[in-house]
Structure formats: structure tokens, C-alpha cells
Specification:
- The termini are far apart.
- The protein has three domains: 156 residues, Chitobiase/beta-hexosaminidase domain 2-like (Chitobiase, domain 2), CATH 3.30.379.10; 372 residues, TIM Barrel (Alpha-Beta Barrel); 73 residues, Immunoglobulin-like (Sandwich), CATH 2.60.40.
- It is globular and about 75 Å long.
- The protein is α/β, with parallel strands linked by helices.
- An eight-stranded parallel beta barrel has the order 8-9-10-11-12-13-14-15, surrounded by four helices.
- It contains 17 helices and 23 strands.
- Bound molecules: acetamide and zinc ion.
- The site of acetamide has 4 residues, from loops.
């Protein structure tokens, strides 16, 4: 019987995912089922919001609609706590006992109804409602002359994965609280529910720990920062620092929780520990006279030494972490831990023998397993990067798969839960357009389309193993993102694609996604998100043909756009040569291309020569 029901559900889903093209509704991430009906409902100053009496959480959720209306429309709606049995005109939040995070949204000419089962479901129903309104609902000032019209429709929606994450490295560069709140706001709009907060590194320690004050007094600072690529050898001579006080952390945890985002703190071990070691050198293998917070990017051999005082330190740090972060899951890093120091260290070598371990990889596994035991004893669970698989996975650990898919596959096959965050597919520090015309980034390019088309459940997994893939995450490493503006430029709109992979059960549909994204960019514009607009620009790629020739391909993401190009250096117009298929150029020729729609250029002109 269960099987029949699930087959029917699968058929229903398949049908519902093929919503009519050209519809004016564009929700990101895409809802599981959406039916557009005739007519609309207009939100006016007099429209009441009804919630069940005594449900403070839903009153708070409804308040998010008022926040937007207050700014963009210049009015707020009255929230009435009432008996909801005989609905009149208004917006209704109804507890329909749906699964967590799920919602149903019905827009009729007389009323809007959001059915939910918990606060998260109500919140996500509201995020969708906001996306049904004109994009000006996201404006930071009054949008004069806008009718707050919502098209009639019926939506049934639920997430594909429980873990839909976005990471931010606040160590390579520090970001202030206002930016973090904004970051969480934009995540929540996309139904992303895990903020992975990277707080400790070789280049700076960012979390106040009362028992070890030096970590932030000293460890927050690096004396200068490499300029440009990590190999440049040129430094800016300017100290860089910043940290989050415990009061600020509590404030951010609460702020995130109100938006149904859980903050997962990351405390790196045993590698990426140089900032901590510079404050407390006794935590290292003691092979050097002096340790300093790193001033360039990369991987450093100065790592935590697995001795009693190190474990005491890390357990003390974890105790304060548990006080601050209600998340059951904590990230213990585990990546990129060179074994050079352990190989030279008398204590480490003695320990390997004493424990009967094969090598330093097994020592790392022992290190993580020992920490896991402590963390489990406090009621928390660990997640770590792929490398925690080396030498054997700790018994209850989850894996964040970043080194391609192999680690994720291996962990799922061993029945450990996995979050897929593979580089370069989900690494937002990679170029998203032609590196020749983009600011410095880590590597790439990884285009929006590449990210969108990536399927996070590896095909080699059996259905039973695939159940261990619990979600996805977009990673924002900030070597080359010194400012909030750079972070937003690199993260958006590509994170829309990752958010959609985490949420929707519909099959991939690149064309449909681009149509929705075109509209969605208007929301990001109103929010002032400084995203990379490669979406509207031609991407010219050269593929070596002979030593003298290049094969040229040009693509553009924007729907309904055509590409026009020239080879004589002149600016393309709507009547220049239409790009229809790859072509060959020689060394002397320069390709100049632009995208047009309805005879008008829609993005920037791009150039490329040999
Ligand atoms: C990583 O990018 N080192 C996890
Ligand atoms: Zn050692």
C-alpha cells in the first residue's frame, strides 16, 4: 500500500513539475506543485492577517510581511488573533498539521491562505507569497504607484533535503554583524536553512572564548595580507582583524533562528590552527621558536599536536561553543592537515606506537574520533570535511564532501550522512564568467549553468545509500573577497541555483530556471544585492584548434536572447552577424559580442582576442 501511495505521489509530482511555460509566476526555489488560476488578490491597507489566537510564533512570522509592506507600501496590515473557522476577506495562516517546513499556499480573489505544520512551514509559505508580489516589495523605499497584486494560484511545497546550507568564511576576511544579518536574510528568502560559519583559521581566530582571551586579543590579528594571488609576494602592510563577541554571537543565533536558519559553527582541527597556535604555542608540536598568524593563503604545516593540553583546550572551546550555539551539529573542519609536524614530533610518534596506529593518517582519525566522543557526550554531533575519512571515519560523523564527490560517495556507502559541497561545482569563490574579464578569484570558471545542472546525489549510489545525502551547501571562501560587495558579487545569483537544488523535487529545467531567474534578479536589484550580471552577457570561449586558429563558442544565459558579434573590433549592433554555431578565427581577429533581445542590447559588450 505504501508503495502504491508513493507511486501516485511520484506521478502527481512529475505532472505538477511541468507547469505551463510563460507563466508569470517565478518562484525560486521552484515549488513542487504550482497551478496558476484566473484572477488575483490585491493586498490593501485594510486587508487583515488572521492567525490562531495565542500563536505568538505565527504572529512573528506574519510580521515579516508587515516589515516589507511598511517600507515598500507605506502601510502595515492588522494582525488579528481570531477564530478561523469562518473565513472572510484577508490573509490566513492555518495550522494544517503539515510536515515540518512544508506549506500550501492558495491565492483566491477573496483570500490568501497559508497552510503550515510548523513555524518554518509558515515562514516558507510567506517567502513564496513575497515572491508572488511585485518585485518592488523588496525595495528599501516606498514604491509609489505599485498595486500589491498577487496572482491567483495553488502551491503545494516541501523541501527535497533537510540541510540547505550556505557557508561564509569570516577568517580570511572579517565581515561585520550587519552584513551577516543581511546574508542570513537573503539566504532565508531562498529557503536556505543552515548558515555554516567558518570561525577559525590560520589567518585569524574570530570567536570570543572567555577561557582563552588571547585567541581574540591576539589571534584575531594578522599583521598584513598578501595582495593579489597568494604567490605574489607583495603584502599590504596593513593589520587585518575582527572578532565576534559572545553577545554578538547570541544576537546572530537568535536573528537567524527567527528566520529558520540554524547556525553551524566551524572550529577547525587539527589543521588550519595557526592563529590559535600563535596565541598558545604549547598546542603545537613545538618544532619552531615562534608562531605567527598567517599573512597569506594556503595550507600550513603548523597544526594542533594531539596531546592532553590540546584536547583540554579544544574541549574547553567546545564547551563555550555549546553554550552559544543551540545547533546539534558542529563542524570540526578536519581538512588539509599536513602531517609534516607530526612526523617530526617525538610525542606524536610515541603516541602512534603506543596506540598501535599505522601512520599519521590513523593518528588524525584517532584525533577526530576522540573529539567526537567528547562532543557526542555533550549531546552534539560532528560534521567534517572529506579528510576526516582518512584513516577511518569517526563512528557518528557526518561528512561535508568538498573534494569532488568521492568522499561523499564513500561516506554514504558507509551509511554516514553527507552534505554535498563539491568544488568546483558548489564553490562560489570560483570565477563565474570569463576569467580574462573578471576580478581575481580562486579558479574556474564555474558558471551559473554548471552549478544549476549539477545533481547532488551521485548516480552511483543505490537508493538506500542515496538516503544518506542530507543536503547541499554553497561555499564562500573569502581569500579574494575582502568586502561585502565582493561576497555578494561572487555568491549571487549562483547561490539561487544551489538553493533550488536543495529545495526542489522537480527535474532540472535550465530554460525554465532562466525565465524565473530573469524575474528574480529584479528582487535582488530591489534588495540592493550586487550580484554578478554575467547572466545577460555573452561568454566567449576559445578552444584551441591548430597553432594558428581558435574555435570560438559564445553563449548567453538570459532567456530569449540572441548573440551578435563582430571580428573587426567594432561594437556589435542588433544587425551584426548572428551567432548560430561555433566558428574559427585566426590570430589577428578579435571577437566582440553582445546579447540582444527584441533588438535591444541587454548586457555588457564582451571582447576576446588570442
Ligand atoms: C576546503 O575548501 N579546504 C574545505
Ligand atoms: Zn606533535
Amino acid at each position: 500500500m505504501r508503495k502504491i501511495v508513493s507511486i501516485i505521489a511520484a506521478i502527481a509530482l512529475a505532472v505538477s513539475c511541468t507547469a505551463p511555460a510563460g507563466q508569470e509566476i517565478s518562484v525560486i526555489p521552484r515549488p513542487a506543485h504550482l497551478q496558476v488560476d484566473e484572477g488575483d488578490f490585491t493586498i490593501k491597507k485594510s486587508t487583515p492577517i488572521f492567525v490562531e489566537a495565542g500563536n505568538d510564533e505565527i504572529v512573528r512570522v506574519a510580521g515579516f510581511l508587515n516589515r516589507r509592506l511598511r517600507t515598500a507600501a507605506g502601510f502595515e496590515l492588522e494582525i488579528r488573533e481570531a477564530d478561523l473557522s469562518s473565513p472572510g476577506k484577508g490573509i490566513y495562516f492555518l495550522d494544517a498539521g503539515l510536515p515540518s517546513e512544508s506549506y500550501e499556499l492558495r491565492v483566491e480573489p477573496e483570500r490568501i491562505v497559508i497552510d503550515y505544520g510548523d513555524g518554518a512551514g509558515a515562514f516558507y509559505g510567506l517567502q513564496t507569497l513575497l515572491q508572488l508580489l511585485p518585485v518592488e516589495i523588496f525595495a528599501d523605499r516606498k514604491a509609489f504607484g505599485t498595486d500589491w497584486r498577487v496572482p491567483c494560484c495553488q502551491i503545494e511545497d516541501a523541501p527535497r533535503f533537510p540541510y540547505r546550507g550556505m557557508h561564509l568564511d569570516c577568517c580570511l576576511h572579517f565581515f561585520d554583524m550587519d552584513f551577516l544579518k543581511r546574508y542570513i536574510d537573503i539566504m532565508a528568502l531562498h529557503k536556505v536553512n543552515r548558515f555554516h560559519w567558518h570561525l577559525t583559521e590560520d589567518q585569524g581566530w574570530r570567536l570570543e572564548i572567555k577561557k582563552y582571551p588571547l585567541l581574540t586579543e591576539k589571534g584575531q590579528w594578522r599583521k598584513e595580507t598578501v595582495i593579489g594571488s597568494l604567490k605574489s609576494g607583495v603584502y599590504d602592510g596593513t593589520p587585518h582583524g575582527g572578532y565576534y563577541s559572545q553577545d554578538e554571537v547570541r544576537e546572530l543565533v537568535k536573528y537567524a533562528a527567527e528566520r529558520y536558519v540554524t547556525i553551524i559553527p566551524e572550529i577547525e582541527m587539527p589543521g588550519h590552527a595557526l592563529a590559535a597556535i600563535s596565541c598558545y604555542p604549547e598546542l603545537s608540536c613545538g618544532l619552531e621558536d615562534h608562531y605567527e598568524t598567517a599573512t597569506k593563503w594556503g595550507v600550513f604545516k603548523q597544526v594542533f599536536c594531539p596531546k592532553e593540553e590540546t584536547f583540554k583546550f579544544l574541549e574547553d572551546v567546545m564547551d563555550e561553543v555549546f553554550e552559544l550555539f543551540p545547533s546539534k551539529l558542529v563542524h570540526i573542519g578536519g581538512d588539509e592537515c599536513p602531517k609534516a609536524s607530526w612526523k617530526q614530533c617525538e610525542h606524536c610518534q610515541k603516541l602512534i606506537k603506543q596506540l598501535g596506529l599505522k601512520d599519521e593518517f590513523e593518528l588524525q582519525s584517532w584525533f577526530i574520533t576522540r573529539m567526537e566522543k567528547y562532543i557526542n557526550s555533550k549531546g552534539h554531533e560532528i560534521i567534517g570535511w572529506d579528510e576526516i575519512l582518512q584513516g577511518g571515519l569517526a563512528p557518528n560523523a557526518k561528512v561535508m564532501s568538498w573534494l569532488g564527490e568521492e568522499g561523499g560517495i564513500k561516506a554514504a556507502q558507509q551509511h554516514h550522512e553527507v552534505v554535498m559541497a563539491p568544488y568546483p561545482k558548489y564553490y562560489l569563490d570560483y570565477w563565474q564568467a570569463d576569467p580574462d574579464s573578471e576580478p581575481l578569484a580562486m579558479d574556474g570558471p564555474t558558471t551559473l549553468r554548471t552549478m544549476y545542472e549539477y545533481e547532488p546525489v551521485p548516480a552511483v549510489l543505490t537508493p538506500e545509500e542515496a538516503r544518506y545525502i542530507i543536503g547541499v551547501e554553497g561555499c564562500v571562501w573569502t581569500e579574494y573577497m575582502p568586502t561585502p560587495a565582493r561576497v555578494e558579487y561572487m555568491a549571487w545569483p549562483r547561490m539561487c541555483a544551489i538553493a533550488e537544488a536543495g529545495w526542489t523535487t522537480c527535474p532540472k529545467d535550465w530554460e525554465g530556471f532562466t525565465r524565473r531567474l530573469e524575474h528574480h534578479l529584479g528582487r535582488l536589484d530591489n534588495l540592493g544585492v550586487g550580484y554578478c550580471d554575467a547572466f545577460h552577457n555573452p561568454f566567449i570561449e576559445f578552444h584551441k584548434d591548430t597553432p594558428y586558429d581558435m574555435v570560438v563558442t559564445i553563449s548567453v544565459d538570459a532567456p530569449g536572447a540572441e548573440i551578435r558579434y563582430t571580428l573587426d573590433g567594432s561594437e556589435p549592433t542588433a544587425s551584426s552577424q548572428l551567432y548560430e554555431m561555433p566558428f574559427v578565427i585566426n590570430r589577428q581577429q578579435r571577437v566582440t559580442a553582445a546579447a540582444f533581445r527584441d533588438g535591444k542590447q541587454i548586457g555588457q559588450t564582451k571582447y576576446k582576442s588570442f
